[in-house]
Amino acid sequence: xxxPASPKPAGAADHETHKPSNFLRQIxxxxxxxGTYASRRWGGxxxxxxHHAAGQADPAKVRLRFPPEPNGYLHIGHAKSICLNFGxxxxxxxxxxxxxxxxxxxKEDAEYVNSIKDxxxxxxxxxxxxxxxxxxxxxxxxxxxxRAAEYLxxxxxxxxxxxxxxxxxxxxxxxxxxxxxxxxxSRTPAENLARFREMxxxxxxxxxxxxxxxIDMASPNINLRDPxxxxxxxATHHNTGDKWCIYPMYTFAHPIEDALEQITHSICxxxxxxxxxxxxxxxxxxxxxxxxxTPHPHQYEFARLNLTYVLTSKRKLAQLVxxxxxxxxDDPRMPTIVGxxxxxxxxxxxxxxxERIGVTKSDSWIDYSTLEGALRDTLDPIAPRAMAVLDPVxxxxxxxxxxxxxxxxxxxxxxxxxxxxxxxxxxxHPELGKRHFKIxxxxxxxxxxxxxxxxxxxxxLFPGNKVRxxxxxxxxxxxxxxxxxxxxxxxxxxxxxxTKSGTPGSDAVKVKGVITWVGVNDAVxxxxxxxxxxxxxxxxxxxxxxxIENLNPNSLKxxxxxxxxxxxxxxxxxxxxxxxxxxFVADRVDHAVGKPVFNLAVGLKDSWGK
Length: 610
Ligand code: ATP
Ligand code: MG
What we know:
By secondary structure, the chain is of the alpha/beta class. It folds into three domains: 269 residues, 3-Layer(aba) Sandwich (Rossmann fold); 146 residues, CATH 2.40.240.10; 134 residues, CATH 2.40.240.10. 24% of the residues lie in helices and 22% in strands. It has 14 helices and 31 strands. β29 and β30 form a beta hairpin. The radius of gyration is 32 Å and the shape is elongated.
């Protein structure tokens, strides 16, 4: 740090965010206060020390990055990381880079790259700032990585090891035993350089030798016992084609990517904690050599998200997709961002979830109900209300014509006179207005709202009992008829005159039960998809079990339901509270006007296992 820290740098007061503090916020606030990174320059794009030195003072106070490997769709764990990294950048006057970590020449799919970009944008974040797009791909740095490797060799910090994989493993030692030096460890830099260039030029077999950092074979941290940094691998890379037959190891590539991009705070999950000494060792060497700018980035670790009943591994989620255990990456039961979105999750809900779980330094499990709670709490204040009957049985009001009179149009005799009812779109927002629907001689009610012989404490329909049809009239149940299988096919009741909601004296008749309904006359048929957790076990892999065995066979139930006419023309992605049932979203893939499909997003309260 060669330039003085500004006397009143961007301290806590400038960055009052009203967000609960956490250890990462404290680190960033301290660095801003002390001006740790105040001297940094930015060359306008990633690059080496000279490139940045020729640039301007970095307009970004901090630089963070979100570095996914484009080998699958992002999941809820990534959402936590996105909200964390982009959120910190936003809150502290910084920027967050979206970096595709594609140094591994595995098959990469444009589909994954696009889905990752969509996910970040949809969550409400952007990699564009100060007129620049900070969208990068790590494979663009292969040339520099190669140069860094040659530098390490020339400075005596790396050597080509021709031991077999097995010998390397044995000679590494273990926690109780120091390692043994490789017989190739004492080669001269010139010999190593020649060998490394042969590796690059394709003169050696895959796996026949590796480049290793020369650090300390007796280090108590096994990651410092001369880790491999380059390997031979004949594979076509999606970006660089067949230019390379050697590829950097992740632990070598990642710190370099951060350094070239002038990242200040490199936040990763806890499993990389033991790699931090190597991260620092490598960047210290490259700073000494003047290859990357100083001060170099620092790595900080936080606990990854573990969520009960959920798998957070792209690879395992891919298995569910490819084995057709779900309908695709965007199956509403999937914890992918596209799945959650289709399920009815909103960016606000996921941001609230990320805020509620916070960041910590020790691993733990977050209960799935925390995720559902965040959705419920964000939808409740905004979701329009509607009535829906999910498992319909017909209710006939046998005295309708006597009470209401006969319809003038004789073709309407079966329906009877229609009586208009209304209900608020949202109970706390009268300004949103009302929804309207009609009641006639026949209505659909929930099958479970009728019991021929009621259990104790049942207040809904049974012969002799009175209930209110919500926003409608009080009725008294008189009986039911059954089909050949003994199933209730129709329920009968009589209408009690002068009890319609909102009319004078309507509450003169007291009832204990209120049931939801939709009129047979104006009901809209709809497919309703009810979802449960994808796994029956909170820890789908506990006890070394194959998670496939823990799949919940009842995770999807498809119903032929009826919804009120206000839902006849809703658009995909619109969300509602179906009164008494929960929050539902018009499916973004299959829903169409005239063929409505609603997904259960979340129930009204946490009822799992109760
Ligand atoms: P996966 O096993 O699902 O592929 P990964 O960690 O290998 O996960 P990457 O694409 O390499 O996935 O991750 C990109 C970023 O997302 C990393 O910085 C990683 O720390 C973060 N991340 C991944 N999974 C989680 C999680 N469960 N909780 C928090 N952050 C996560
Ligand atoms: Mg990975």
